[in-house]
Amino acid sequence: MTAKIIDGKAFAATVRAKVATHVTRLKQDHGVTPGLAVVLVGDDPASQIYVRSKGKMTAEVGMASFEHRLDAETSEADLLALIEKLNADSAVHGILVQLPLPDHLNSDLVINAINPAKDVDGFHISNVGLLGTGQKSMVPCTPLGALMMLRDHLGNLAGLEAVVIGRSNIVGKPMAQLLLNDSCTVTICHSKTNDLQAVVRRADIVIAAVGRPEMVPGDWIKPGATVIDVGINRVPNGEKTKLVGDCDFASCVEVAGAITPVPGGVGPMTIACLLANTVTACCRANGWAEPQGLTA
Ligand code: GUN
What's the count of helices (H) and strands (E) in the chain, helices before strands? Predict the structure, then answer.
């Protein structure tokens, strides 16, 4: 069997087109332009690429983009002061602080200083709590994009066995929560899991989110399973480098029923969901009807 390739690039383009339509409507009906502020501290090359890409896509859908690049030695007090300013700025509907932050900054403190209504990453403790109790919240973008692809491919997920490899706050934990909210039977695996292969083998849905290049081989995958590869790992490729996922694509594609490629799978959906969350935040802040059908 050769798996269906789930085209995240095309899917994300349709989400961004819907976002752009909503942005136009908000401008026409209310004279308001949704605005997203992105804060980058330091000069981590991967983060710089993400932030540049976010700024470009934000502008492309007609939203206002505010970029704040701070040097690596920025103090916690200065960063918190910037967040306070963005919290109070009515032109800013979404705030994203790019992670990881330099070691001297306390990420939990910084994230929890963001107004939860503007927390388009869904990382604030109150959004985490709302998601965990099945209430309306901001939903983290990467798991949200993955869920949209799963629902699009599989329809109703109820009763399916889902295995999430990785327990990060950004992907693994919220992904498990979303799958649970969709009535999957969910297992979270991590570096201490006994017999990872046996657990993965029973999954109808495999989410790989560990950041270890090609660690999941095809012979771990149950035939016909849906594989969502969240990993984006840069590895040597002759003189150059290339991007690979957490799954060994060549072998997994022979066994799975469907699989997301790297690049071109989950990555583009993350940014599309960030833009969608910003439109949602803008509507909620103003008491306007929320856009339906933008995300999962
Ligand atoms: N670093 C890696 N992924 C993310 C993300 O989704 N949001 C933020 N803020 N930082 C990240």
Answer: 10, 11
